[in-house]
Amino acid sequence: MSSDEAPVALVTGVNRGSGKSIAEELHRRGYRVFALGRTLLGEDWLTEYACDLTDPAQIRSGVGRAVSEAGRVDVCVSNAVDRVWDPIASLREPDWDRLMAVNLSASFHLTKALLPAIRAARGQFVFMGSHAGTHYFEGGAAYSATKAAMKAFVETLLLEERKHGVRACLVSPGAIANLDGDEAAYKMATASVAACVGAIIDGVPGDLVVGEIEIRPAQPLPPPVAGIDRLLYV
After folding, report:
1. For 29-140, where are the alpha helices, taking DSSP H only?
2. 74 burial class (0-12, 13-18, 19+ CB within 10 angstroms)?
3. Which of 3, 71, 94, 176 has the most beta carbons within 10 angstroms of its beta carbon?
4. pLDDT at residue 75, rounded to an integer
5. pLDDT number for residue 182
6. Which parts of the chain register pLDDT below 50?
7. What is the model's pLDDT at position 221?
8. Which spans of this chain does the record mark as coiled coil (predicted)?
9. Pick the CATH number of 8-233 from 3.40.50.2020, 3.40.50.720, 2.30.110.10, 3.40.50.300
10. The predicted structure's pLDDT at residue 1
11. Where are the domains of the chain?
């Protein structure tokens, strides 16, 4: 297959962590990979466009450039994310607005801009969610709110677009070792998450749709100390 005949994937937020691994996995599977994000990797196999994902106009421009250069887009992986772990009492309004823009609204604008191309290819959207969308924690209000809302968005997209041959999947991971040097046994490797995403995109029979999948580390955290064992820590 020539490069012009290869399927095309557009991924957001590929500068590090799981986004980078997803882009590498799709490249390994034979996709021409295009990327939108603020930080560029400069890899020769990756076509990148600088894009501030808080700006709908930049998203539309980046999508337009990718579709124009590639001629088609078969898969979109909306991965870019921002995080703030402040409690509500001290959470700054600009931080709340930025997380809403990057983690949620960017997926809407990306979908709107790409939908004609994905329809034409009878392709697929994959949105990276999080366990934080259903498992809430102190300091996670902004992050969890965006991930909870993503579930409603993706399910509605699937309901509306399945009749046009468009698939949409929400991938909700638990803890991922996204930072360089993080090899914690109770976190998933980014390459493992990417392999799962690649399998959803490439390994699913054409007569079914994976609407949502939850993945979690195989190795759980040690359980809390309870009962008489507490005496060991007095």
Report:
1. 56-70, 93-100, 106-121
2. buried
3. 176
4. 98
5. 79
6. none
7. 81
8. none
9. 3.40.50.720
10. 54
11. 8-233
